[in-house]
Amino acid sequence: MCGIIGITSNKPVSSSIINSLKKLEYRGYDSAGIATILDGGINEVKCEGRVKTLENNISKIKMLGTVGIGHVRWATHGAPSTLNAHPHSSESVSVVHNGIIENSTLLKKFLVEKGHKFKSQTDTEVIVHLITEYLKENDLKSSILKMLKKLHGSFALGIIFKDEPDLIIGARRGSPLAVGYGPNENYLGSDSYALKSMTNKISYLNDGEFCILKKNSVEFFDESGNKVNKKILELSSEDTSYDKGDYKHFMAKEIEEQPQTIKNCINEYLDKINKDINLLNFPWNKNEISSVTLIGCGTAYHSCLMAKHWFEQLTKLDVYVDIASEFRYRNNRFKKDNLYIFVSQSGETADTYAALDLCNKNNMKTCSVVNVVESSIARDSNFVLPIHCGPEIGVASTKAFLGQMLVLYIFALKLSYIRKDIDKENYLKKINSLLSLSELVKKSLDTDSQVQSACNSFVDAKGSMFLGRGSSFPIALEGALKLKELAYIHAEGYPAGEMKHGPLALIEDGMPVVVIAPRDDYYNKTISNMQEVIARGAKVLLITNKSTDEVFSENIWQKIEVENTDQDLLPFLITIPLQKLAYHSALKKGYDIDKPRNLAKSVTVE
Ligand code: G6P
User: Fold this and answer.
1) Taking the chain, what is the end-to-end CA distance rounded to the nearest angstrom?
2) DSSP character for 341?
3) Which of 45, 109, 112, 408 has the CA that lies 20 to 30 A from 101?
């Protein structure tokens, strides 16, 4: 998604801006640009495509300005093009923007009537002209305040001015924005990852705030223009590596890192000596919670669905799951004894944040399961359960999915124990199983060659289905999502028992169908559903776990077996071959695996 960088310094800033934009590349974008102030003028370079192209274009000219802003854009208003790329500038002002200005059409009308000429199809350009208009009769701070009051929608902004060669304005409503502090320079960034290579001293703007950055000072203001004092936070020095190592893609690396992901989480939450789970300052007692609602988007939503299964198996709590973009507009019944759990890798997804904000405004108990602990969702939740995965760069989520599931499982298990829904013997048994999970996940990685031979049938297919029941249904959804995202193959995840109510009509000779049937309580039922699709010509790839029992194998096209463990943990092992199926299919088709078309890592617009 879009990304912002701003630097004010005592030396030229363009190469540092380019380096920081490269750090934001993982978010997924379609164009890039940079503007600096030099000799009383705005110096702007933009292009469609990658930061590398921008860097090449800049190398041909001299960009010596000591204050500047940069941007990577993920198109919302107006197609991806050089003209629509940010920054957008007038004679006197240059702006980069993340988010959407909802009343841009009205504002544009007002500005055109005043004689302003627009060059792009973006909503952002109204901001440039509004400030230019207000600067005619107001000082800089009043112009910014007036402009901000006019905007509806969500935004993070970086603004520079022709007549202010040392100054950047940052402003936020809805979209995140961070300020970094350095020696004789200060920084603005849409996420702290992008600033980490320059500084570990960070402050975050709250909703409605704006800031004035100079190379030797930073001031923060609320939406009325009153000064605000800010804490400076020190970011941890861990996880600054964005190196692919020997891997072809970040996704391949992140898939292989999953045994370590599991280990990190287990080390964080399990007391191995006392065989107990430590939820570290969990703020509520068992009588205060009688139900939970899990909320997320995309892959995070699938881990919520998975968690519903575990919460229902392990506890007597009522459990609800919602997609954040639906929840935020629903006429919700807010209940005091409900715990709202927000799941997000980035912690910045706009819809998930809005759902959290809604719960906070209704004084609900809020908890988040995030990877980025400095994120907006983490900061604004009552309680945070980090997944400790390290940076996930590939747009399609892999290790964060396992991390989210693991933290949610550990959480459900601990609640179950606190509430006495599970007895001590079973609790200890499950903890022991958790302790061997990392090794078993590692063995799932060995399915690579089997997956590679299976994916030939998927790459040529018109469409495919992923079927499962119980805990295998969310995994089927996730497997299908991965194949769609990366290999652009139509794939549907479906509850196996529901096929006969419609989708069975889609099955035709040779259609690849993944059937997820571990030896759990649903095994026999799923195998019956598998026979129904085989009878109609489907080419079935069965994913199950090893067992001494005979596996039904007649007419199955291919079978992949993962290790055996506690039923609860089989989804972790089964997810791996599905991630690999999507990866190898995309590789065979020659697609850009870490940056699939039209998608973004961190979706900071509605
Ligand atoms: C985007 C990503 C998905 C991710 C979803 C939610 O769509 O491409 O991989 O699952 O956002 O992101 P979050 O950061 O909230 O987990």
Assistant:
1) 12
2) E
3) 45
Q: What is the pLDDT of residue 573?
A: 98
Q: How far is the CA of 512 from the centre of ligand 1 (A)?
A: 26
Does any domain span residue 245? no
Question: What's 144's domain CATH number?
Answer: 3.60.20.10
Name the residue range of residue 534's domain. 448-589
* Cα–Cα distance for residue pair 464/461, rounded to 1 Å: 7
Task: Identify whether the C-beta of residue 387 lies closer than 8 Å to the C-beta of residue 371.
Answer: yes
- The encoded tokens of residue 338 equal 């409900």
d(C-alpha 360, C-alpha 223), whole Å: 20
Domain count for the chain, please give it: 3
Q: Residue 69's closest CA among 139, 170, 145?
A: 170
Reply yes or no on whether the pLDDT at 235 is more than 80: no
Same domain flag for 563 and 477: yes
pLDDT, tens digit (0-9, with 9 covering 90-100), for 335-394: 999 999 999 999 989 899 999 999 999 999 999 999 988 788 998 999 999 998 988 888
Q: Which residues of 198-232 are buried (b: 16+ CB within 10 A; e: fewer)?
A: bbbbbbbbbeebbbbbebeebebbeeeeeeeebee
Asked if residue 281 and residue 190 are part of one domain, the reply reads no
Which three-class secondary structure state does DSSP give residue 109?
A: helix
Ligand 1 pocket residues where CB is under 6 Å: 297-300, 344-346, 349, 352, 395-397, 599, 601-603
CA of 345 to the centre of ligand 1 (A): 7
